Amino acid sequence: MYLDAERRAIEAYDWYMRDRVRKRAASRALRVAAIVLGAAGGLQPLVNLAGSGPGLGWGYVLLASAGVCLAIDHFLGLSSRWMRDMITAQRIHQRLQRFQLDWAALEAVEAGSGGDEDAQVAHLQEYLDLLRGFSEDISTILIEETSEWINEFQSGLVLLQQTRSGQN
User: Fold this and answer.
1) What's the confidence (pLDDT) of residue 62?
2) How many CB atoms lie under 10 A from the CB of residue 78?
3) 3: buried, middle or exposed (CB in 10 Å: 19+, 13-18, 0-12)?
4) Helix crossing, 2-49 with 117-167: angle to 10°?
5) Which has more confidence, 9 or 158?
């Protein structure tokens, strides 16, 4: 049971660590694009003053494109989901380490207790309590993260609908 509980926690940790990489890359790409497009849009009037620019209208297009990059990141929640992935992975890892140390401590106590049958039954109960607490804590962490994701997703939909309503 120990190995199964540990494996499930490690799989959850690994999933959040893998998932954060994609979100981080997408978020950074959109933010870099926003910076580059914003800077190019801001410099466009200076290029036009120098007489070598394609026209003043391109500055607005570039600035609008920068805004679209930021809006995509915001509406998809890439930056916030990336940060939540990191926090959730850290919480799982911290709880896993505590579980492993508590289990090792119980094994040390059991090794020193001898062959008393009542003591063995008490230790089994301690092991089961530790497993139950660990499994419940990992489930709670995952439920909390899922709830945060659902709330963020629903808030994004509401904001998108409000934005769409404002354009009509």
Assistant:
1) 92
2) 21
3) exposed
4) 30
5) 9
Q: In the block, which residue shows the tokens 């954060």? A: 20
Measured CA to CA, the distance from residue 27 to residue 81 in angstroms comes to: 10
C-alpha–C-alpha distance, residues 19 and 16, integer Å? 5
Q: Kindly report, residue by residue over 45-79, the tens digit of the pLDDT.
A: 877 777 766 666 788 899 999 999 999 998 888 88
State both tokens at 149.
Answer: 């994701």
Band of the pLDDT at 14, cuts 50, 70, 90?
very high
The answer to whether 103 and 130 are in contact (CB under 8 A) is: yes
Based on the structure, what is the number of domains in the chain?
1
Helix (H) or strand (E) holding 55: none
Domain with 53 in it: 2-167
Contact 16, 110 (CB under 8 A): no
Helix, coil or strand: residue 122 = helix
User: What sections of 77-116 are H helices per DSSP?
Assistant: 78-113
Residues 117-134: tens digit of each pLDDT: 777 777 788 889 999 999
CA torsion, points 126, 131, 134, 139, in degrees to nearest 10?
-140
**CA–CA distance, 77 with 153 (Å, rounded to integer):** 8
